[in-house]
Amino acid sequence: MTQTSAVALSIRQLVKAYVRGKLVLNGITLDIAPDGITAIIGPSGTGKSTLIRCINRLVEPTSGEIIFEGRNLVTLGRGELRAARRQIGMVFQEYNLVERLSVMENVLSGRLGYVPPFKAWLRRFPQTDINEAYALLDTVGLAAQAHARADALSGGQRQRVGIARALMQSPKLLLADEPTSSLDPKTSVEIMTLMRDLSRQRGIPAIVNIHNVALAQRFATRIVGLSGGAVVFDGVPGALTDAHLKQIYGGESWLDGDSG
Amino acid sequence: MRAGATVVDCEWQRYSAGERMARFMVYLVIVAAVVLSIRTVEVIPEFIIDAPEQLADLLKRMWPPDAASYPAEIHDALLDSIHIATVGTVLGVAMALPFGFLAARNVTPWPWLNWVARLVLISARSINTLVFALFFVAVFGPGALAGTLAIAFHSIGFVGRLFSEALEATSPGPIEALRAAGAPAASVISFGYWPQVVPAFWSLVLFRWDINVRESIVLGLVGAGGVGMALDNALNLFQWTRVAMILLSILAVVIAAEVAVTAIRKRII
User: Fold this and answer.
1) Is the Cβ of B83 closer than 8 Å to some Cβ of chain A?
2) pTM for this prediction
3) Considering the domain boundaries, does residue B231 fall inside one?
4) Are the beta carbons of B173 and A115 separated by less than 8 Å?
């Protein structure tokens, strides 16, 4: 467990403004360790999603650096960006599966960055990919549904497929944008457990946007609190106090109610 | 009710004064357009009064339809028409797909390409099949080839436009997921866009085929092959019983196509 110097991802002075002059991210600087789950918490509209999407450039950063595998992702050309994206798995709030394709095809689509388009079109994936896909489906508990269509699955099952698809990339980093926000509390815990276990087993660091503070504290190894586009808390879950939450979310009446 | 409370009447009207004025203007324009159109048509009253008599006379001469002419002169021509429609549809769809992809703003992120593609689609749609047929008859001579190409070229506009609209209506989530996985553009299309538009695609292909069956029948009138040519001949020779038989056959084919398309569409959607 020597992770003092090693860094999987380094974000330097990241700025994003969708509209000129209105900063959504106001100079974020973060180093992500090569293992563990980093939970990003913060109020709606504070740039959590923008931050995570800037990392794989689904959203183009306005300025700053994102160093991953020794390269600055912000300045990569199209081809290089695709190659870098292959190594970054992503899980979405709305699962983002292709509904009319089978579960198996959705999982295999995680390999599209590696398989030539023509072979992918003919569904001729390498045997190792197919074996890996079955193994992953088994891991997430959906081996029996491999041939079902994605739109026949429940929300929790779809998110499992989403996780399997992300891991199919053999990623070196996992991003999750509100992976449990569309799920019920029990399923949310199951999905977070799955993400934590797989991240541990495979040694893949994960960055997870999450608005449920209790879930963040339970599963994350590190919590980053965003407010107004800036980092206002960064530490282990145990260090997160009501005072911090007040600072992140503002107000305090919501803290007493059902915190128990 | 609340006793003692004074109720103040609040004024509420569905439209504001400006909206009422705008609506009035729209009605005015519609009425003016209808009046102008009627004046241009130049209705001749004598012909209208005469019409029922003429119609009755024509129907009398058409009856009974000349069933004996069907095997010898109508059947093959009718099949020709259906073949023209089918091959024309296949060709038209093949040509329409690339323009559909180029016209869809979410698939092709270059506005100038969208506009070029849309211009092609609009041109194809605005030139009637009959006009295309006249053109191709002049180029390739009369016959089924001219008809097939006319059908194909006019279909590009309809198929391409609706296909690009189906593409633009796809959900962006799965596309984003595939891009995030580093998929190249071709794979994003085949795994992300295509599965989402497959039902719409087959539905509009069938719909277009149905329209093309009807259009291919008319094409013969300008010499572009099919049963229209037989109809033209019969009309020119005043063989009214044969004309009746041809019209009945066409009606049967059109109904059959409609039934088939409806049945297949129900299955795929």
Assistant:
1) no
2) 0.83
3) yes
4) no
